[in-house]
Amino acid sequence: MLELYHAHISTCSQKVRLCLAEKGLAWTSHPIEFARGEHLMPAYLALNPNGVVPTLVHDGRPVIDSSVICEYLAEIAPSEGTTLMPRDAYGRARVRAWLRYIEEVPTAAIRVPSFNGLFLKAWRQMSDNQRAGYIAATPLRKGHYRRFGTEGFSKDQMDESAERLRQTVERIDFAVAKTSHWLAGDTISLADLCVLPTIVRMSDIGLEDAWRDLPKMTDWYARIRSRPSFEQAFYPGARVSVAD
Hints:
Helix content is 57%, strand content 7%. It is of the alpha+beta class.
């Protein structure tokens, strides 16, 4: 039995939903509402002491960290649905190198414009005590929220984020030019699925100009959006816009 504790608009949750869809695995949904602080409540922290989403519970045992969950799903169901990890050691190493890069560069970078564009207004409406209490209760990324302050991230931080996101789409473009279709070989893999939510978020908040001059990247994005898993993971209510 697979249960997923996730947030609809969370990019890390979207990664796991994409993998579940590609694998064709049945799962029970447990939506977590950030606005209610459900990710910081004792019952959830007992599953995931980091207080972040998603958390996969498989036969009563929690698995945390989105990239770890994706690899876990590929391992427990290797022959079901799409094969998301290569069968050879070198191929798996290529995918894992992408996963480490995705965690270090685009996953961290997209938080900066996301927070400035989507969450600053609500954050400002909180009292100083509410903000301080939220930061104190957050197991991870306390510094992230402190840097966010009440004015949002600075222009220098936004510029650095844009640089890192541009590097990401350039690497996608270069990788696809070498393999014809996908990031780590001739077939789709966890590398493609785990970077996709960042690209979708970039599109949703008006950063598509970052890849307009990159034809292979543009082709890759269109190709992956045409897969049935895309609509299953990005169902109505699972995407955002600055206007929201």
